[in-house]
Amino acid sequence: MYSKLERKWWFAGPVTAVAALLANLLTGAAGLMQPFNSAQWLLYLLAFVAIQRSLSFAAWLLVLGVAPTVAAPERSR
């Protein structure tokens, strides 16, 4: 399900770090500063995954616009 670009450390690292920061800010704004039980952890995890996938897609579109051979090498030939 992940593209070849999403497997590269220089792409996945910043996207994951920003997603963790945004998920922490989002759950903090919702009143869950530190998850204490499984329901709060589940909410944090769902927020993190949704934000990470959205950021990954947006960054992939950005890379596709700037350098198409990096984002989709099999389609640029």
Could you characterize what this model shows?
- With 77 residues, this protein is mainly α.
- The protein is elongated, with a radius of gyration of 15 Å.
- The chain has helices at residues 9-29, 38-66, 68-71.
- The relative contact order is 0.15.
- The model has no long low-confidence stretch (mean pLDDT 86).
- It has one domain (8-71).
- Order of helical and strand elements: HHH
Query: How many separate domains make up the residues?
Result: 1
First-residue to last-residue Cα separation: 22 Å
Unreliable residue runs: none
Helix run count: 3
Radius of gyration of CA atoms, rounded to a whole number: 15 Å
Overall mean confidence score, pLDDT: 86
**Overall 3D geometry?**
elongated
Q: Helix/strand/pairing class, anyone?
A: mainly alpha
Taking the sheet with the most strands, its summary is: none
* Number of E-type strands: 0
* Helical content band: over 70%
Strand content: under 5%
Transmembrane segments: 41-67
Keywords: Membrane, Transmembrane, Transmembrane helix
Brief overview, please?
The chain has 77 residues and is an all-alpha fold. The protein has one domain. The chain has 3 helices and no strands.
Tag the structure with descriptive keywords.
70% helix, single chain, elongated, transmembrane helix, 3 helices, membrane, mainly alpha, 77 residues, transmembrane
